[in-house]
Amino acid sequence: MALWTDLVEPEFLEPLRRVVAEHVEPQADAIDRDDVYPVAAIKALAGHGYNSLTLSPDQGGAGLGFAHCAALFEEASYASAAVGISLITILQAQTIIRLFGSDSLKRAVLPEFGRGLVTSYALTEANHGSDIRSLDTKAVRDGDSWILTGRKSFITSGSAAEAYVILAETQVGVSAFFVRRGMDGVSTEEGPNAATFGLRNGPHVDLVLDRVALPADHLIGVEGKGVRQAVTTLDYSRTMAAAISLGIARAAFDGALSFAAGRSAFDRRILDFQGIQWYFADMLAEIDAARLLTYAAARALDSHTDIARFGSEAKLLASRVATDTAARAVQICGAYGVMESARFGRYLRDAKAYEIAGGSSEILKNTIAKRLQHHVAEGIALGGEAGR
């Protein structure tokens, strides 16, 4: 019996695992070591239909649910979390266009994801960080065009992106736009803080916009509603971020288990020591719990049920479990666990980075607490009890 329960049908998982084993696993160490965007892996996954799973068939997708999407992120990240983080910036751009884009923008862009379009979700600015309510990047309407000027900073996947979703302030508020790399006035720069110690899928570049002219339909959704649209998109991607953490946790667990089962000390297998067994028992229970929550959150995306709550809970729990599992895996493996030739250092760096990237644990707790406040307020308004 397999240790990890399949949470979607095996007919989907088995070919996915073969593709990951062929196109992701062999590159995983080099991607992390060299800090490069995994172009070949991403294009290979797209070629097998995995970059557009939740798009409808008329948009070039498979029309599957988000549990299948979570399985993709978990399995890809079991081999390489850098590939997982590359897929997530593609999903973010895809999702905001699918949910809010004009029909003409959807027709033009969404089918490109199935052909391997690499995108970045470029929201951050140096002076504002996670606060995207007011921005230095500006967009001005000029006839049938928008003119964008500004700079986005620390952009994940930006070194290889072929297109970007960006936020800019217009006359009525923050708005979202779709920008292609080849447009006049678009360039990238690599600053002194471009490299991270985990989730290394290429340098985090600055995106420079110098009077970039966009067609009118490259405004995504309603002018002035960009913050709400971006946050809604993040509610989707947080569940997939949780799935990335699950992949990291499982890889660290399996690596440590293999070591403990094959290594002896004091005439006993490492795995036969009760203290080591307790480590594994705790890790297994925690990973199983995080997996169940994450796939429940994925199905909540399909049913549009309490998305912000379940996505935040899943990422909060899964990222913490991944970090704890990776740290204990290092401990179990002793000296081997801290060797650069072993993968446990990568697992630990990737896991810890995802307690911050894509919504820090503190931000997630705020979101969950806000949901509780709304629940209590609704109960009081209806004359009911808070816990009902």
From TrEMBL:
Residue ranges of the TM segments: none
Domain Acyl-CoA dehydrogenase/oxidase N-terminal: 11-115
Domain Acyl-CoA oxidase/dehydrogenase middle: 121-212
Pfam families with a match to the protein in the record: Acyl-CoA_dh_1 (PF00441), Acyl-CoA_dh_M (PF02770), Acyl-CoA_dh_N (PF02771)
Cofactor(s) the record lists: FAD
Residue span, Acyl-CoA dehydrogenase/oxidase C-terminal domain: 224-372
Keywords: FAD, Flavoprotein, Oxidoreductase
Domain of life from the UniProt record: Bacteria
SUPFAM superfamilies assigned: Acyl-CoA dehydrogenase C-terminal domain-like, Acyl-CoA dehydrogenase NM domain-like
Similarity comment: family membership: Belongs to the acyl-CoA dehydrogenase family.
GO function term, MF aspect, one: flavin adenine dinucleotide binding
Protein name, UniProt field: Acyl-CoA dehydrogenase
